[in-house]
Amino acid sequence: MADQATVSGTLRDRAEELLRALAGPGAVLRDDQWQAIDALVSGRRRVLLVQRTGWGKSAVYFLATALLRGLGDSDPGDSDPGDSEPGDSEPGDSGSSGPRPGGGPAAQVGPTVIVSPLLALIRNQAAAAARVGIRAGEIHSGNLTEWDEVYAALRAGELDLLLVGPERLNNPTFRDEYLPELAATTGLLVVDEAHCISDWGHDFRPDYRRLRSLIGGLRPDVPVLATTATANARVVEDVSEQLGAGSTSAETVVLRGSLDRESLRLAVVSLPAAEQRFGWLADHLAELPGSGIIYTLTKPGAEELTAFLRGQGHEVTTYHGGTEPAERIAAEEDLLGNRVKALVATSALGMGFDKPDLGFVVHVGAPNSPIAYYQQIGRAGRAVESAEVVLLPATEDRDIWRYFADTSFPPEPVARQVLDVLAQAGRTMSTQALLAAVDLGHSRLEQMLKVLDADGVVRRVKGGWEATGEPWVYDAERFRRVAAARAREQRAMLDYIATPSCRMEFLRHALDDPYAVPCGRCDRCTGRVWSTEVSSRSRDSAREELRRTGVPVEPRRMWPTGMRTLGVAASGRIPASVTAEPGRVVARLNDLGWGNRLRQLFAPPPEAQDGPVPDDLFEAVVRTLTEWRWERRPAAVVTVASRTRPCLVADLGERIAGVGRLPLLGQLPRVAGGPAAGRVHNSAHRLAGLWSAFEVPPPIAGPLAELTGPVLLVDDLIVTGWTMTVAARALRQAGAPGVLPFALAVETG
Q1: Distance between CA atoms of 518 and 505, rounded to whole angstroms?
Q2: Starting from the edge strand earliest in sequence, which strands make up the sheet with 360-364, in order?
Q3: Where are the beta strands (DSSP E) in 626-720?
Q4: 622-663 pLDDT tens trace
Q5: 304-318, 551-565, 711-725 — which is least confidently predicted?
Q6: Mean pLDDT value across residues 603-626
Q7: Closest CA to 741 of 662, 651, 669, 639
Q8: Rounded to an integer, what distance in angstroms lies between the CA atom of residue 330 and that of residue 352?
Q9: What is the rounded (10 degree) CA torsion for 606, 593, 338, 312?
Q10: Of 239, 255, 296, 688, most Cβ neighbours within 10 A?
Q11: Which of 50-59, 118-127, 192-201, 698-707 tops mean pLDDT?
């Protein structure tokens, strides 16, 4: 048998050959890359690799796959692994005989399974694998029709690597038909972006918690690799413990390197108003090197900024969660090909996007965590000597953080209610059916069900969910700790903005990087600061863009499912005879322009804000109404009875009627009704509480039949749209020829 050092040296030589095929002729393995590969291939260990973005974490699992598939289960000392060259076999070869990408004897070790969080990341990884002759297959929501074909190729030994999204782990078909066999044959399990495993991670996803069960079900000698660039000490400890489940080998090998990004030049430019931040970008975007990403905190912010920058002659494109998939791909390709100066994006553009020569990242508004910020700026400067990273914080950032903060685990009584409903049903229930039984929004209910599934008390099956009958303990302490950690991260982000010391060192300390030292490159280290001057032309143009008014609001067209369960006889499509027409609001509540002003108006407590409509807002109302291209002009005004801002709504209706020279028919009184929209979380429960809330009195009902045009129905704020839907239904049933909803703002993501 060959000497172990000789075997290790030969393995490293072959790994270096494969690395050159992957990354170019001058590529050389880093020491930690080799240590990870050796631990996986020779030691069959569990490894956590915490290294900065662009360090080469993917090379570790590609090379380990090639070596494991080439070595099989034979003793590496029994033959010379260098006898076969990496190019001896074609990537398309299959079967159980013949040389594999790593050389050596026939493949006997099973395929590598990579759990990867994003489709874009999966696409990139599959393309990279092909460069070293690794045959990769994909199973995710984007290729459902190909699952059987991919799995057949896997069973036939025609694939070396399978890429799956974490959500597949709990898809009933994948979990029951594919996963057991896959767990039994896997040769290497890779968990990419492993911080998602942990409750403490900045991007926690409940589906990742199922990995603990998968890892625990592997054969004890199966190596496992977890990789991330954004794990602090708590996350490292948590993930390491989960990686060790079911393993008989020594404790998890943690390889943690410096998180410094030597190409990044960090800076903060503090400007007092959104119009100045927009104007600053218009003035300085051309000075930023190459092409890059401009992050905003909200979809409306991305759209507003894109429209403004285009108007100033800059080639930019919008990218956010609401962008159509084909448009997203086109936008990514435009940035990769340097056909645009920047993508104006939300955090939807993050993990998985790889442009090595990205020259800058600018944030218009601060993320709510230094860890999330480090992850996003890590897109820049991977293959260039210098990349600019600029943060333009805003006073409204904290408002936006609060707006998106309602993602904590629901209170115990709500979770118990769901479990009781499932237990009493004794059958599979769809998510829609559960929405009728419990007052939670759809996304929050789905999130809670995934956590309960990972805890083993519910189970996703075809058609919905079922109870398992297992006991469950509400881990209030865990949820409290996670919420407290989120609050600390927000405070740390504010500290980053204000720090007088090195910014990169601050971020590295936030990630518990033991090697953190001053970078010598940021604005604090060098004293080189960006000018805060904004040209009057850009500032005025930005002000004009941000003061634009008028956002369309589409009416509800379908009753929510489960209404009969709540005692309301409504199902299917809302009859056209009682629906509202498309409406308008001045702005969305989280717009960067009017949104700031409107958030002040609607800030709690609402009683303190009740009174006549401020003049500047009423001017915006008039502009919105003037620019509204309605098919039929309104013939009268009716206001909705408001329980929180009665003076505001009454004054708004009266002034609109005055400037429009329209009759004010009066207020649609509320005769019943449940809690306010902000205290109800899903459509079925909200509508049930509103169903009989309004009654059309004779002073309004009398003139309705004589109108020649629709009624302008006026309220202050549209939250769910159901108040307007029910009020419009009442007016239409009383004889109104049409209803045009109008409000100051709409609350939307």
Answers
A1: 5
A2: 264-268, 387-392, 360-364, 292-296, 342-345, 316-319
A3: 636-640, 664-668, 711-718
A4: 999 999 998 899 999 999 999 889 999 999 999 999 999 999
A5: 551-565
A6: 85
A7: 639
A8: 15
A9: 180
A10: 239
A11: 698-707
Six-digit token string for 42? 């020779």
Alpha carbon separation from 697 to 509, 635, 670, 674, 731 (Å, rounded): 65, 18, 11, 20, 10
Categorize the per-residue pLDDT at 105 as very low, low, confident or very high, splitting at 50, 70 and 90. Answer: very low
Q: pLDDT tens, 320-333?
A: 888 887 888 899 89
Instruction: Look up residue 50 and give its DSSP letter.
Output: E
Question: What does the pLDDT look like over 225-272, one tens digit per residue?
Answer: 999 988 888 889 888 888 876 555 668 899 999 999 999 999 999 999
8-state DSSP, 365: S
Burial of 446 (0-12, 13-18, 19+ CB in 10 A): middle
| Token output for 99 | 């040389």
What tokens appear for 490 in the block? 């927000």
Dist. CA 434–CA 418, nearest whole Å: 7
pTM assigned to the model: 0.82
- Asked if 14 contacts 103 with a C-beta cutoff of 8 angstroms, the reply is yes
Which residue reads 């000789």 in tokens?
6
Instruction: Look at the chain and count its residues.
Output: 749
47 neighbors 255 (Cβ within 8 angstroms): yes
Q: Count how many Cα atoms sit within 13 Å of the Cα of residue 529 in the half-sphere of its side chain.
A: 10
**What would the DSSP string read from start to end of 568-629?**
----SBPPGGGPPPPEEEEEETT-SSHHHHHHHHTPSSGGGG-SSPPHHHHHHHHHHHHH--
Per the rule left: phi > 0, alpha: psi between -120 and 50, beta: everything else, 707 is beta
